[in-house]
Amino acid sequence: MTLRRWLALASVAALANGELVQVPNLQLPSTAAAHQKAVVDLFNVSYTAYKSVSFREQVVMYSLVNRKYAWSHDDLLPVTKSYSDGLDGWGATVSDALDTMWLMGFHDWFNEAVDYVATVDFSLSKTNSAVSLFETTIRHVGGLLSAYELSGQNQRYSALVKKAEQVAQQMTYAFVGNNAIPYGNVNFADHTPVSGLSSIATAGTLTLEWNRLSLYTGNDTYRQLAEKSVQHVINMPKVLPGMPTELIDPSTGKPSGTYVSWGSGSDSYYEYLIKYPRLTNTNDNSYTDAWLLAVDSSIKVLLKYSTVGNWAYLADYDGHNILHVGSHLACFYGGNWILGGKLTNNDTIYDLGLQLTDACWNTYASTATGIGPEGFAYISSDGSYTGNSPPTPDQLLFYNTHGYYITASDYILRPEVLESNFYAWRATGDTKYLDNAVSVIQSFQQYLPTTVAYTGINDVNNKMSSKSNDMPSFWFGEVLKYLYLTFDDPNNISLDNYVFNTECHPFKTPTAKNIYGSVA
Ligand SMILES: *[C@@H]1O[C@H](CO)[C@@H](O)[C@H](O)[C@H]1NC(C)=O
Ligand SMILES: *[C@@H]1O[C@H](CO)[C@@H](O)[C@H](O)[C@H]1NC(C)=O
Ligand SMILES: *[C@@H]1O[C@H](CO)[C@@H](O)[C@H](O)[C@H]1NC(C)=O
Ligand SMILES: *[C@@H]1O[C@H](CO)[C@@H](O)[C@H](O)[C@H]1NC(C)=O
Hints:
Blueprint: H1 3-17, H2 32-51, H3 55-60, E1 75-77, E2 82-84, H4 92-104, H5 107-119, E3 131-132, H6 133-150, H7 159-171, E4 185-187, E5 192-193, E6 198-199, H8 200-204, H9 207-217, H10 221-235, E7 247-249, E8 254-256, H11 267-280, H12 286-302, E9 303-305, E10 312-314, E11 316-317, E12 322-323, E13 325-327, H13 333-343, H14 347-365, E14 375-377, H15 393-402, E15 405-408, H16 416-428, H17 432-447, H18 473-486, E16 498-500, E17 506-508
Antiparallel strand pairs: 1-2, 3-4, 4-5, 6-7, 7-8, 9-10, 11-12, 13-14, 14-15, 16-17
Helix pairs in contact: 1-12, 2-17, 2-18, 4-5, 4-6, 4-18, 5-7, 6-7, 6-9, 7-9, 9-10, 11-12, 11-13, 13-14, 13-16, 14-16, 16-17, 16-18
The protein binds 2-acetamido-2-deoxy-beta-D-glucopyranose (4 copies).
One 2-acetamido-2-deoxy-beta-D-glucopyranose binds next to helix 12 and helix 14.
């Protein structure tokens, strides 16, 4: 039996049996409520700052109107108390924060946010910029539809579907002619894509959101485009079995280069391969098979253990050499392997998911602030090549204690390590994952505050680090939601009833076998 055929049989059996992801009857310790409250407070302060300023500050600024720092804009700039519009200015924070507000019980803010969204014209960029297919899909389409679903598909909130459809309708212009692969960016004003290469992350990260959009609008075009795109990637030539290069030319559908990675540019292609069949219960095994093949190659070629500490990492591969690098972004892989290992009933993959999660957590546990860095590297038995300069004496010193060294020292409010930690808690019930989350909350409270909210820091290994000046929307959509859910009743948003899009927006999984079975 070929590996491919064997994998196919294994995956059918597992998904049909409906393997459980979470430990049954998992209970929270009594201390959880206080930690959850601390997360709600972080959200409360952050969103209050995004919305407006206090009366006292208004007086200081000699302003009689209710001056807003960032309301309706994409990001709050928490140091300069201003805003930025890097994602077309529709209010990415609002779309990303909606479902978190619903779950945390900020229902007045939720209503206010829906009423705001209803007024936004998503058919034109407010900044006259090209629109990113990837970012707009995961934040706006994902955020709006998840909020609609969680709040009970209520008529009161039907604008959420209308607006998701309005923005997606414009994004369909990323698909030119009969091309299977969309361009990465579209000019909404004249319906033309921006020429250039696309990535497998863009081509493979539409299925969850566009499937739900088709379900709620009754227009199947979105599901068909998303599936056509990822099917092209699944079937195109590979660098390693199951692992394509990260770049594709949308005009030809041909791969460009030979770079393979679980990090930026490729990450959520792999993530969605196992999540999409879970969302749909489809009988089509191609998604799960492609995921299993990629994981198999990753175990054979990319899995590396550090010579210090024996920590597990997934390296990058440029077609010739292994690059011993890691990133905060790629640290979603632990949670993804935990989920996929459970769904396919494969203990090897599941155990590796836990090892990868623990190694990513070690990047937090080892720094002066208890927060992990944006980029890192390591040395394994096959060497230390990173494609960049070799480690400095200081980096080697750090490596010899911690089993990794820092190559990009900033923290920009990313979620992935906490995401994997959340999966590990729900799948194992081991309270060490709750302890990790408690420690992060304390680090956030200690090292991230500005006068009005929280912000990133430039050096996670320096308690006196200078601060950056940005609160990206994923702080509201992902970081605070994963932390909140870590301390929530495990029956709420159970991993056995929901899948999360790559921006942490949960979608209910159907119990029916049919792709358009009820979502109830
Ligand atoms: C949010 O903060 C405000 C001001 O401190 C407080 O009055 C309110 O109760 C908080 N809301 C929640 C849900 O914690
Ligand atoms: C379905 O959506 C596509 C893409 O936005 C659009 O071109 C088409 O007109 C829609 N079909 C209907 C029946 O609304
Ligand atoms: C689990 O997956 C690994 C990696 O692909 C494979 O080698 C192993 O045979 C699988 N085990 C089972 C029980 O399916
Ligand atoms: C979540 O769990 C809490 C505590 O068990 C419960 O009070 C609450 O209603 C649940 N929320 C949802 C949305 O199910």
